[in-house]
From TrEMBL:
GO terms for molecular function: translation elongation factor activity. Gene3D superfamilies: 1.10.286.20, DNA helicase RuvA subunit, C-terminal domain (1.10.8.10), Elongation factor Ts, dimerisation domain (3.30.479.20). Associates with the EF-Tu.GDP complex and induces the exchange of GDP to GTP. It remains bound to the aminoacyl-tRNA.EF-Tu.GTP complex up to the GTP hydrolysis stage on the ribosome. The keyword Protein biosynthesis applies. This is Elongation factor Ts. InterPro entries: EF-Ts_dimer_sf (IPR036402), Transl_elong_EFTs/EF1B (IPR001816), Transl_elong_EFTs/EF1B_dimer (IPR014039), Transl_elong_Ts_CS (IPR018101), UBA-like_sf (IPR009060). It is found in: Cytoplasm. Pfam families: EF_TS. It comes from Zhihengliuella salsuginis. The keyword Cytoplasm applies. Residues 85-88 are annotated as: Involved in Mg(2+) ion dislocation from EF-Tu. Residues 76-282 form the Translation elongation factor EFTs/EF1B dimerisation domain.
Length: 283
């Protein structure tokens, strides 16, 4: 039996892995089956991937990326797309797929995942397109969430938590006015929100139930510490203020100048924050 010489090179393997995001063994098998023909090998990977799509259903998708776009300075759209491994997350193919999802979100005006999944991509629903593209990648790919906000001025900020991977954190920030100063403030606050992870824009947005629960915990803690009854109200209010400073954007100490709150920075810029969204991959 003569030695079989594969009619493809290491460079072909590398190119096919980059193009499809598929694993080393799958790429070699596909090239063998396709007799070294690059396009045919892509097709082989795709067909095998679609067959395996149902098997991948239960797999965990904790990796991925966040990407965003601002249209006309007034509309911000952001999506989170997940996959299984960071190897796929940084592949050109996955990044291109996420860009397509974002493009579809912008064009369709979809404000929730359901509407986005149903939106048209080249004559088919996005949900179907994602399954097919995920098949080529050989991983479960999920469009996890989408956000669309509008304002006088909207800023989108994407943050890389690792230089080797696409952005893992994204923020959309809307303020009520347009202009240079408003844009600069929106951007500064977006960068702040990426780092400081606020949950709510203002105190009004915090559910009453959450506040009550926090108040109860503060009271019980103060009693357990044996604090005097007369000082109780002041102590509880102080702890609630501390709680707001952690979770409410406008109450947080501004990351670039901790002597000021975010609310104060907005006030000095002559604008009010009207909406924000923060995504972090997998959280």
């Amino acid at each position: 039996m003569g030695l079989y010489m594969a009619n493809y090179t290491a460079a072909d393997i590398k190119a096919l892995r980059e193009r499809t995001g598929a694993g080393m063994m799958d790429v070699k098998k596909a090239l063998d089956e396709a007799d070294g023909n690059f396009d045919k090998a892509i097709e082989v990977i795709r067909i095998k991937g679609l067959k395996g799509a149902t098997k991948r259903e239960g797999r965990s998708t904790a990796e991925g990326l966040v990407t965003a776009k601002v249209v006309d300075g007034t509309v911000g759209v952001m999506v989170e797309v997940n996959c299984e491994t960071d190897f796929v997350a940084k592949s050109d193919k996955f990044v291109a797929l996420a860009d397509k999802v974002l493009e579809t979100a912008v064009a369709s005006g979809a404000a929730d995942v359901e509407a986005l999944q149903a939106a048209d991509v080249d004559g088919k629903p996005l949900a179907e397109y994602v399954i097919e593209e995920g098949a080529t990648l050989g991983e479960k790919v999920v469009v996890r969430r989408v956000s669309r906000i509008e304002g006088g001025q909207v800023d989108a900020y994407l943050h890389k938590t690792s230089k080797d991977l696409p952005a893992q954190v994204g923020v959309l920030m809307a303020v009520d006015k347009a202009g240079e100063e408003a844009a600069a403030a929106a951007h500064d606050i977006a960068v702040h929100a990426a780092a400081m992870a606020p949950t709510y824009l203002s105190r009004d947005e915090v559910p009453a139930e959450t506040v009550e629960n926090e108040r109860r915990v503060a009271e019980e803690t103060a009693k357990a510490e044996g604090k005097p009854e007369a000082a109780m109200i002041k102590i509880v209010e102080g702890r609630l203020t501390g709680f707001y400073k952690e979770i409410v954007l406008t109450d947080q100490a501004f990351a670039k100048d901790t002597k000021k709150t975010v609310g104060k920075v907005l006030e000095e810029a002559g604008v009010a924050a009207t909406a924000f969204t923060r995504f972090r991959v997998g959280s």
